[in-house]
Write a structure and sequence with these properties.
The protein is mainly alpha-helical. The chain is built from three helices and two strands, in the order E-E-H-H-H. Helix 1 (about 15-30) runs antiparallel to helix 2 (about 40-65).
């Protein structure tokens, strides 16, 4: 699935860089600029850490070949096994009914 922000189950490189940049700007910005409600300053610092964390680890996941978004390969394989079992069960039930 292709989108502007993610491609093939991962963030695009531009999105990863943008997340890291936003987080890097938020951290020093909230620490050096005095924001009166302390809860707002603390939440902006946490938001900055979160942006950096998501951007950096999505890049690592992409290098490892992991998919953050989308259906994993093992779930696709599991669905094919379930479909095959349903077909076998349906055909097996049909032979039992004809023997009666």
């Amino acid at each position: 699935m292709k989108n502007r922000f993610y491609n093939n189950g991962n963030f695009t490189g531009t999105t990863q860089v943008a997340l890291i940049a936003v987080g890097t700007i938020l951290l020093p910005g909230t620490l050096y600029i005095e924001i009166k409600p302390r809860w707002l300053a603390a939440s902006l610092v946490l938001l900055g850490f979160s942006c950096i964390f998501v951007g950096a680890f999505s890049a690592r996941a992409q290098l490892s070949g992991l998919r953050v978004f989308g259906k994993p390969d093992w779930k696709k394989a599991k669905e094919t096994y379930n479909d095959q079992e349903r077909v076998k069960n349906d055909s097996h039930e049909g032979t039992q009914n004809s023997n009666r």
